[in-house]
Amino acid sequence: MNKPFVSLCPEITRANALTLMDWLEDEAVTRYLSDSRHVSRFIEQVIGRVQFPVLTHLFNQGGRFFMAYDRHDVPVGFVRLVKNGRDCEMVLVIGQRDNWGRRLGTSAIREGMKLAFFDMRADKLIAKIHPDNARSLQAFLHSGFVLESETPAMKSLALPAHRYLQLLHESPPAHTSHIYITEIDKARLRSLIEVAMGAEIFELEHEVERAIVVDPVQVAQDVVTMNSKALLEVDDEEVEVALVYPEDADDGAGKLSVCSGIGTAILGYKEGDAFNWRIPDRTCHIRIRKVLYQPEAAGDFHL
């Protein structure tokens, strides 16, 4: 699978900080980064004074900082999101020149958009880019941003929330496929999301909102719906699971909550689909081998 894939991880370790220092010493990387000297000095001070292995709280001062990883869990860059009122600004850096041209920046933008709109509840996402930074301009424009204002030193691009929701339906991220959900499941999952707790619930909301809604009697028999049973291949291991609501979850019995990492991941995919998905500690490769049971196909609708 050669499609570009990037996941954003909120945990920043001391090893991450050292990697960031290496990137910020490359003038080609920092050429268009307006506050690169300030950031580099801050990281150097943190490394010198703080001996903790995890430095997340220090990097989240004044905004939210995420390390960007590729499908092999190798750090390739970072994203910073800063909320100002109802708007949010994104700063994106792909740190090694070897990774330029692989469309990892566009994939990182997609993940940043998901966080900004579903987790941080921004009304608008903004990116301020130097006019000569053609690669970044192209990546943001390709992701749906439009030029909002410009000066000789800066182009301000913007994407409003309503347009983002339209884009979710028009074009799935490059590393994914279209997914399908029944009208009944969507209504119940939306009610669940409104009251659910957990840092990753925005992932489920994102999947529900981007899904193509179909009538229960029209959903294909090979699609994973709620209360389906499916045979998966997770990395190199075959597992049989049932996709259930949180109150019915039982990991020991293979009943995965739709709010769990892999539970959210498989919702709406069909037999033969394969994709990468970030779970808390790693990226895994998931293939839907077979849908063993589907309540819609059996006429067993759940209200």
Structure characterization notes:
- By secondary structure, this protein is of the alpha+beta class.
- The chain has ten helices and 14 strands.
- The protein has a seven-stranded mixed β-sheet, sandwiched between helices. It has a five-stranded mixed β-sheet with strand order 12-11-10-14-13.
- Helix 5 packs across helix 9 and helix 8 packs antiparallel against helix 9.
- The mean pLDDT is 90.
Record the SSE blueprint.
Elements: E1 7-9, H1 14-24, H2 27-30, H3 36-49, H4 56-59, E2 64-69, E3 75-84, E4 87-94, H5 104-119, E5 124-129, H6 134-142, E6 146-151, E7 154-160, H7 161-170, E8 180-182, H8 183-195, H9 201-210, E9 212-214, E10 229-234, E11 237-244, E12 255-257, H10 261-266, E13 274-279, E14 282-293
